[in-house]
Amino acid sequence: MSVGQVVEAHGVRLRPFRASDTADVVDGCADPLSQRFVSSMPAPYTEIDARWWIDTGAPAVWTGGGAAYAIADPATDRLLGAVGLSYPVPARSQAEIGYWVRPAARGRGVATAATRALSEQAFATGTLRLELLTETENGASQRVALAAGFRYEGLRRSAGQHRGGGRHDLLAWVRLAEDPPGPVARLLPDLPDGVLTDQVVALRRLAPDDADLMYRLHSRPEVVANQAPPVPPTREAIERRCRLAESSWLTGEIARLLIVDVATGEPAGSCGLSYTEVSSGEGSIGYALLPDWRGRGYATRAVRLLAGWAFGPAGIARLTAGTVPENTASHRVLERVGFQREALQRGRLPGLGGTRLDDLTFALLPAELR
């Protein structure tokens, strides 16, 4: 790729930065979201920083073998954001791709279009492998990666550096030259319109604001007693679970949902679905309710909704649920949905003080869902 080259594809224009872009660069880079997830940006970001980038920073990227493009609207040529290639490794025909978008241009597919356009240009000029690294809490950027054809490859421990010091994990998304352009099919797709409901209960994705409720629910003695090992979670662990709920869903690790009473909007509990064996299409579910909502059939309704989604859009062929043998209330919930007792696995789960717990497994096939 050459410095002055202009790329027009997928509804965006990639061109060199210009002095007239200064105000728009400040608008995009000083934005709180950009500041939060792009720790390499100066803080605060000023007009001086934008001028340095346009006059010195971007040209230096090109000189170093990378690419630094302004994303522009093809109709007006106004700057919408930026996309570029960094950390080139010529011996591996590899580079890292990154982007940011101005607040007013978000939600229009600009980042996805620009990432696709630059990826195709990079592959056409000899690059064979592109990496895209996202922060674990940056679900929007992870959605861009998937939409642009990048597949989740794994967690890079402490690969990122906080602006104020310290390090954090990053998620690695990769696209090869021979990969299809995207979007990448996900193990756990989004819920239809963001919710599953039977008009009595509704299931929606867990969110960071749900931490108080989740800690209250999963710290209850009777809930702790029915998990393995039966150890209460820390507040920090619950907060992290809620913050990473979208990322865990997008990477295919687990779909965590809140159970909500439709009439009042009040949260009643939580449930989750994960693949236990992708190759055979087997998944597993779990659930818990707050005391005030028990005995109303809400757990049954939630499990039924989750199982229907699992067998439908999620493409799961078989569902399992593990329970402690003494949890008869949970057994009744599963049986009302159609699950059948399948096996008692003795000493399968860790208990307290080096003890082992039995696991009573229930299973459900699509034709058995009631």
UniProtKB/TrEMBL annotation:
What range(s) does the N-acetyltransferase domain occupy? 12-177, 201-363
The reply on keyword Oxidoreductase is no
Picking any one GO molecular function of the record gives:
protein N-terminal-serine acetyltransferase activity
Q: Which CDD domains match?
A: NAT_SF
Q: Report whether Transferase shows up as a keyword of the record.
A: yes
List UniProt keywords, sorted A-Z.
Transferase
* Pfam families attached to this UniProt entry: Acetyltransf_3 (PF13302)
* Alphabetized InterPro entries for the sequence: Acyl_CoA_acyltransferase, GNAT_dom, Ribosomal_N-acetyltransferase
Q: What is this protein called?
A: GNAT family N-acetyltransferase
